[in-house]
Design goal:
The protein has about 160 residues and is α+β, with helices and mostly antiparallel strands. It has five helices and eight strands. The strands form two sheets. Strands 4-1-6-5 form a four-stranded mixed sheet. It is globular. The N and C termini lie far apart (about 40 Å).
């Protein structure tokens, strides 16, 4: 008996010298103005649990391997579960931008985005997970509110 299909995506941030954050985001040739979190499904690997799918998919798309991560959001969606992980530690380095051609012909481009710009162009289906990661950041970084007032306003309104 195979496990249920699930989608897993990752939230990976790096902090710049000026204290601001950049986040890995993916755009597709089909929807170039929407940014999504990198990830994928276990459709071709039904034996995987969500953590295994996340590590495999995130590694394939970015070239970096999550070592320590926290699930920040899980939800049901059209017959499958969606899991969003917040990377705490990774092995490797992202050498991007990187473009991947999907079997269906779609081209996915992954690159680091300024956190504020990412927030403005974020695919709405990934919003809740992103905001939950921002709650974590705001809780551990006292400068977060100074750099990202628009995100903090949205957090305070319940996103």
């Amino acid at each position: 008996m195979s496990k249920a299909t699930h989608f897993c995506a990752g939230i990976f941030l790096r902090r710049e010298l000026d204290g601001k954050y950049q986040i890995l985001g993916a755009t597709s040739s089909r929807f170039p103005n929407e940014v999504k979190l990198p990830g994928g499904t276990n459709e071709n690997a039904p034996w995987e649990d969500a953590d295994q799918t996340f590590v495999r998919e995130f590694s394939e798309e970015t070239g970096i391997t999550p070592v320590s991560f926290l699930t920040v959001h899980t939800e049901a969606a059209r017959g499958h579960a969606k899991h969003f992980m917040f990377c705490r530690e990774v092995n490797g380095q992202f050498n991007g931008p990187k473009t991947v051609k999907e079997p269906d012909g779609d081209e996915i481009t992954i690159k680091f985005w300024d956190l504020a710009q990412f927030n403005r162009q974020l695919f709405e289906n990934h919003r809740t997970a992103f905001m939950k990661a921002c709650i974590v950041l705001r809780g551990v970084d006292e400068t977060f509110s100074k750099f990202y007032p628009e995100i903090c306003e949205r957090l305070d309104r319940g996103y």
